[in-house]
Amino acid sequence: MTTNSDWSNATSSETQNRCYLYSDESFNHRNMFRPRRHMSKSLNLERVEVTGDCLSFHFQKTCWSLQMTDLQPSVLLNTGTQMPLLGLGTFRLQGQEDTYNAVDAALTAGYRAFDTAAVYRNEAHLGHALRCLLPKHGLSREDVFITSKLGPKDQGSKARDGCLRSLEQLGLGYIDLYLIHWPGTQGLPVGDKRNPENRTHSWTVLEEFYSEGKFRAIGVSNYTVDHMQELMKSCKVSPAVLQVEFHPKLVQKDLRALCKESGVCFQAYSSLGTGLLLSDHVVLDLAKKYGRTSAQVLLRWAIQQNISVLPKSRQPERVEENGRLFDFEISEEDMGRLSALDCGEKFCWDPTQVF
C-alpha cells in the first residue's frame, strides 16, 4: 500500500548581448523588476544605455543606473508581492559548508530567491548562510525572497507547530512564501479520506500566519486540478503560488489554465526532469544551436513563458551557469519543438493518487 510517508522519505556573454531584454518595448518597472532603494520612481522610458556592466534607464526627468546583478526579473503575485523568476533550489543541499558556498555563488550570480522546505532539513543552514552573506553582498533581508514548505508529517493538527518551526529554523523574521508541500499526510494511505480534512486545516493555519504578517504569501505544492478546485472553494485567502513539476515532457496544460483563471502564479520545479532531459536529442540540438548548456535551454524555455524556475546545484560554477538565462532568447519555432515533447511523463512524485 502506498502511503504519504513514501513521498516524505524520498524528499528527507556579454553585456551588449544582454541588453535587448530590457529595451523600451519589454521593460516594465512594476512587473519585471523589484526596484532597489537607490532607484528613483519615474515613468516614460526614452532609452537604455549600457556601459560595461552598468545598465542605465533614461526617462523624461530622471535616470536609473544599476549593475546587471541588480536586475530582478520577477512575476507579480496576487498579494502584490514580486517573486523573482529565478531562484536557487536547495533540495539535497546538506551541511553548513555546502549551503554557504551555494548561496554565496547564487548571490554573486544575481539570484535573489531561495527555496527550501522542512523536509529538506536545511532551513537552519540556509538562514545562517543568508544572515552571514547578505551584508557581504551589500544586501538586506528585504532584497531576497525566501520560500519554505510545511512537511507532510505536520499536515493537519500539527500545522501550527510546523509553521513556527520553519520560522525559527530560518531565523529571518518572516517568510516571503510558505507552501503546503504535499496534499497528503505522512503516515496515512494516499486514499485516506482524512487527507482533505487535514490539508484544509493546514490551509487555515497558513491563512492565520499570513494575516499576522509572518508569511507574506502562501501557496501549495504538488496539488492537482482537483486539489486546487477543492482549496479554491473553501479558502479565505487564495493561494498565491502553485509549485509543481514542469518541463517539456510535462507541460501541465490543465493546471496552468486553472492558475491563469484563478490568478495563481504557476512555478516550476524539476525543470531538468531530474537530469534525464539533459540528454534528450531535441534539447541537445538546441543547446548546440544557441551555444548553451542543455540546462540553460530547459530553464530558458520556462522563463520565456514567465514561469519561475528553481535550479539546484551544490557546485558554485554550475549555480552561476544556471543563472545565465536572460542574455539569450529561444525562437518561437524552437519553443514549439520543446513543447512538442510533452507526453505527460513525471520524473518525480505523483500526487494524483492522493485523495
From TrEMBL:
- InterPro entries attached to this UniProt entry: AKR, Aldo/ket_reductase_CS, NAD(P)_OxRdtase_dom_sf, NADP_OxRdtase_dom
Domain NADP-dependent oxidoreductase intervals: 86-341
Give one Pfam family: Aldo_ket_red
Which family, according to the similarity comment? Belongs to the aldo/keto reductase family.
Name of the featured protein: NADP-dependent oxidoreductase domain-containing protein
